Each structure stands twice: as C-alpha cells, then as structure tokens.
Amino acid sequence: MTKKRLGPAKVDRTFRPHHMLEWTMATCVVLGMLLLFIFVRPQQPESLASADAAQAMLDFRENMPSASTANRIGQVTVGAAAADVLEVLGASAEDAEAAVDALRRTGLVDRKRMRPGTALTAYFDESTLQDDTSRLIAVSIKPNARHTLLATRQADDSFFVSVLTARLVTSHRRAAGRIETTLPAALVGAGGTPAHAAALAALFPDDPALSTGGQKGERYDAVFEVAEDERGNFIENGDLVFAAFNGVTSHGSWYRYTPGDSGRTEFFGSNGVAAHPFLTRFPIGRVAINSGFGQRYHPLTGQLHLHTGIDFRAPAGTPIQAAGDGIVTFAGFSEGYGRHIRIRHKRGYETLYAHMSGFAGLAAGATVNSGDVLGYVGDTGSATGAHLHYEIRRNGRYVNPMTLELPSGRNLASEPEEFAAFLRQKAMIDTLRGGTVSDMLTASNFLPVTQPTSP
After folding, report:
1. What is the pLDDT of residues 180-232, one digit of tens each?
2. Contacts (Cβ under 8 Å, ≥6 apart) of 252
3. Are 352 and 337 spatial neighbours (Cβ–Cβ below 8 Å)?
4. Which of 253, 270, 242 is CA-nearest to residue 413?
5. Quick one: which of 79, 220, 397, 439 could link to 39 by a disulfide (CB 3.0–4.6 Å)?
C-alpha cells in the first residue's frame, strides 16, 4: 500500500468579488513566498561553492538512496531558518522539520538555529519534481571545516544522519618578521591567530607591553601547527610549537615539548630547561591541608559556599613567604580574612594570604620578591584555629592553587634519554624555521632591541 504523501494545503487564487478577503489572504501568501525566496537566495546545482563539496558527496555514495535524485542548493540567512530554506527548495514542511531535527541531534549543529551562511544541498526524487512539493530524499550540510553531514530518508520516512569526518594531517607553518603595528596583527597576517600571539607573549612575562601588542620594530619568530585534510586544504590552526622574541625589555626562544614520563606539555629553552614557576603553590612549604578549593560548608555559618582558596595547617607564628615577585596592593584587616595581604603579580595573577597574626613590616605599595617573608600564621578574622588561607586569582577569577598549570622549572639536561628526545624535536623545529641558524634570529644577533633615539 503506497503511503500518501502529505503536502501543504493549496491556496485558491481565483478572484471572486464576494470573496475579497480570501483573495487578499492569497495575495499575502504569494508575497510572503516571494520575500522568502529573496532571503534564501537558492542557487543552481552547477554553482557548488567548491570542488570540495562535490568530493565530500562522493564519500557518501554508499549512504545515498538508490532513487534517481536532483539536487538544489539554498543558504540559511537571518530571515530564513534551515527548515524554511528546505521548504522553499521544494520540501514539504513535515520533511523539512524532520531532516533538520535529525541534523541537530548529531550535536554538530546549533540546537536552536543554524548559522546564517550555512549552505544546504537538498536531494529530491526526480519523479516528484513537478508537484507543488517534491519528495525530499536527503540533505547535506558542512557545519564546520572538519565535518560533513548527510541526512537520508529511511524506509519509515524518518531521516538518518551519516557523519563524514575529514582525515587530518598535521603540518607546520612559520611566521617571522618585525612588528609593524601589533604582534597579533603580524601573526594573523602570516596565517596565525591572536591566540598564538597571546601564547607567545605569555612566555615573556617580563615584557608587559608584549601582552598588549608589543612595540614597532621588535622581532618575532613563531612556528605553529596547521591541520590540513588529505588534499592539502587548510582546516584549522593548532598549537604554538616554537616562539622567539627579540624586544626592548626581553628576549629568548622556547620550544614546545612533552616529556614521555609526565605527559605534561611545556615550553623549554634550547638548553632543555623549562620556564621557572613565577608562583608557588606552597607559601609556607609542603604542610598538611585542612580544606581544599571548591564548594564546602562553612565551619562557622554552616552554609554551603565556594571556598576560594586552600587552608594550610601550621602553628601560629609560622613565617609566610611571598609566592612570587610582585607589588603589595593591600595589607590590613577585614572581618572575614582577618589580617591579610594581597600581592599583584605578572600575567594577571594575584595572591592573598589571610588570618595572619602579624605583618613583617610591609604596607601597600611595597615591592616583594619570591620567598620574602610577608607575615606569620594566625587565626584572625573568621577562623576556627591557626592556619593560612591562601588564594590565587587569575584575571580577577579564583583558581585552584593545586591544579593551576604553572611552569615546572624542569631541567631535561639532567635526564639523558629525555634530553636526547627533546634535542631531536628541537632539531625538527629548527629545520622548519629554515635551518639550525635562522636568518633573522641567530645566536649572535639575538640581543635586545634598543629604543630608537630622538632625532
């Protein structure tokens, strides 16, 4: 028994003077459809965006229905959602909604609305192309650079989605030169991203200007990963793997490497030494922890709240040391923290030391170095006993001092096998840069750039 296909109700467009209201409504429907066609901007099948789209469909040949099909292409716009586009291309309202819902269930398409500009290729049964609505056989979209989706009609008239994931090959690109405007602009112009510029700047914390773009004339050299498909088409940028900088206030070079024993990726200097931690997790040494970071019931109020730091157990009077170099921004008393000190560090970090019994002669505005004594453990403020409450904030947000990714200061040169593996990767990166000696940043000329003198 052939299942009757549902379609939209036909509109009677015959003009009858005594049915003026019906004629007006019909006119509105026609105008509405014309406007929708304008929004959708359907294209002819010959105008595929690229040969890649056609190639992607060849990869789906086994998933396509056996019926003879014809395809039409439309584009999601601000004024026309995906289901609207399919209806304009000729699908019934029911088929359009079913196909779009199936695509959304993959999790690769926005649950509410596809992005404007998303192209949909609709495949119809050729035998129904003369009807007001055509039998939708399949719908193909490319929601991102990695994936292509094909929703095909099943025997029960539901739609099943096949997902094609591009096979990626990792290659590398180099960006090197002098800053003309800003470091992000320079890297983006060479095929990198603002994220690469931020990662490079983070490796040189002694140069605060670099995090905001650097200065004209400063030299940079960066190598980053690039993901490409099997045909060599660019898919997306990957991680920064090498960074060198020759600026007014800082200079150096760093190689990204993942030791086999720890699995922790860090940047190491050419001598195999990782960046030294600029903050410590243990401002009074490795002592017992009373309470960790996260949600807990407050010991005094009994209310569930976020415990914003780590409580270290220690006898009253234990010296508290600065976690890193910085400037004291507050040294005083509050009801909750008791006597406490705040220190502003580089890279947007801030530390706080609370419940102190006394200060070591410090006041707001004082400069401290890592390891300097700030004060002593106590139980002032909202405390049930002597301990240090220690917080770290990054760009104003609380972070867990125990899980925060900090440089290790590890020296691979003391580990022969690991150091040999690092040197092999370093040699590969140097080759990518055009040889072991860069034309622009050689060991002999890698010196600080001097500020230009006034004429």
Report:
1. 999 999 999 988 889 899 889 888 877 878 888 999 999 999 999 888 777 77
2. 203, 204, 244, 245, 269
3. yes
4. 270
5. 79
Token code pair at residue 342? 């705040």
User: Residues for the chain: how many in total?
Assistant: 455
CA angle 324, 391, 328 (to 5 degrees): 50
Q: How far is CA 12 from the centre of its chain?
A: 53
Domains, the chain: 42-165 (3.10.450.350), 167-276+409-447 (3.10.450.350), 289-399 (2.70.70.10)
72's tokens: 């039409």
pTM over 0.85: no
